[in-house]
């Protein structure tokens, strides 16, 4: 790694944002209830907890068919280091996975490192700048292109070619763009899911209105949101929450249905101030400022960051499919989920997910691949039971394990096959600066302190020079 690349990574580490785990980030929760105790010691000879009993894990492991690869196991002992985001529940399940993996591959010792999502990139980009990284590394979709550009990651294509049963067709191709560059694939998704339209059945029943369905347009959503808004103060019911922001996937969900975009597909030109994007954003500003249908910034501050939809105070919300697990654990209201609405130019949504990557500095790439092959197999997803498996063949199994209605798995698979995609989701190196630059200007527009035209013109002027950072040699 040359001096310029080391400096770029150091800057990236210093600039890492603290993102929430259920919005743009993809820290997937598993089907078990949280471990009630605090920090816990996991028995390496019999890993388990009240949430994940060892006996049940062993039975599930033995019932699954684990994949093969033509990449040979090491002839002598090697140690691979894994670095992933984690929580108490995930840590137990991953320890169980590693336990059974080592039984299948006795010459591969697994050393696991864990860090909270908010600290993860800072920690490991500092290591990358120093030339030392684990053998397998978690990667959020918005980070990967920067690492590829700085020669940090190894391509995975040769490993996939040596694994005839890997079945790339089981992974949505429309969500792999975050991990590709110049024809090479540098990451494989740990999870992948679309964003969908969630709704509060109780509020719709009370209003005597039909539930949203596949026929809905954005015009229908706006009309219904106005009808569903009522009350004031702490008891107010919002028709929709939250107000769209100029974030990584705003194009894919809110602008493309009207023919608009935040940036062009190459992330080299600002398009948010063009007529189609302006039309879409203007409709939302009217809902906020004129109709008071979505919570304002001031109202959100009064709510002390409590999510109006999750607390039963908003009729509709667009969020990731991973939200279904969280909603299934509450009994405050009945909920439903369906396709996002259509716009004049069609129906669009984002397919987002994180990945596992192998750093170029790894001295144990073969062993790292053997681990990834099993961890990201259909059996691996079924064993871990995460809420948004990238392999579509695992959705029914996991939905049943999580207690979700079978039709939710069918909905997700249909959306992923039909119209969810990575197009319009910012992923090139300048993405964080772009979002951070646009945010305060858009918030002034949300407060009514600047007109829509002036806000979008200012965003275009400020973001345009930043896009030079996306032109990687």
Automatic annotation (TrEMBL):
The keyword Ribonucleoprotein does not apply. InterPro entries: Bact_solute-bd_prot1, SBP. It comes from Nonomuraea purpurea. Keywords: Signal. The lineage of its organism: Bacteria, Bacillati, Actinomycetota, Actinomycetes, Streptosporangiales. This is ABC transporter substrate-binding protein. It comes from the Bacteria. Residues 27-50 are annotated as: Disordered. The keyword DNA-binding does not apply. PROSITE patterns: PROKAR_LIPOPROTEIN (PS51257). Residues 1-20 form the signal peptide. Gene3D superfamilies: Periplasmic binding protein-like II. SUPFAM superfamilies: Periplasmic binding protein-like II. Pfam families: SBP_bac_1 (PF01547).
